[in-house]
Amino acid sequence: MKSTSPGYAITIRVEADTSIAPTSLIPAAVAQAGGMLTALDVVESHHDKVVIDVTCDTIDADHAQEINEALTAHKGLTVRKVSDPFAVAHAQAADLLVLKAAPLGGVSHELEIARGAGLPVVISSALDSSVGLSMGAHLAAALPELEFDCGLGTAALLAGDVTREPIAPVDGFIEVRRVEVDDEKLQTFNAEEHRYDWWLERLERTYKLL
Asked: Distance (Å, rounded) from C-alpha 182 to C-alpha 142?
């Protein structure tokens, strides 16, 4: 029996009634259809419905359609959109793949994505602090081949950092190491109170849907 692969990962945007406990129902439906769930992101939240991005690895295009149908078979679930992040790679319409460590689930998951895409890879930052940049450096070092320069010299674009020893390129190279976060620096660059409250409110709202 074939296995699922990140090379055939899809993201399905689903609108769901809150009354059917969608964060439990959706993973069960994906698993029953043979998919490997990798992410479940609530993108909209209302009192009677939620919109969730469901990302999962599939076996092939036909299997992706089966998972789509497995979700729509449940009353209270409506598929808004299906996207295949590797469609461009499968169509041989891209020359390389740009990966960012933090937004795509960390080093291990990104290595699977790189293997599944079958393209040369460039590691880039998402304007991270040195904590995120260190993960990008670890990811780049873990790749079996690295044909192109990476975009990990972005700490210089920030007003400051959360460590006293930032990750920065020297003569075109970046040291692969863990970063020690400095408490004083962390306080200096802490989010403003209104932004902190915004994230807490969002977490509280979405947690009630779990």
From this structure: 27
- What does the angle CA 167 – CA 187 – CA 175 come to, to the nearest 5 degrees? 10
0.90 cut: is pTM over it? no
Question: Does any domain span residue 128?
Answer: yes
pLDDT value of residue 168? 92
Residues 82 and 121 reside in one and the same domain:
no
* pLDDT tens track for 107-124: 887 888 888 778 899 999
Q: Are residues 117 and 64 in the same domain?
A: no
Q: Are residues 183 and 165 in the same domain?
A: yes
Any domain includes 145: yes
Per-residue pLDDT, averaged over 135-164, amounts to 93
For the annotated catalytic residues, the residue numbers are 2, 100
Residues 69, 82 contacting (CB under 8 angstroms)? no
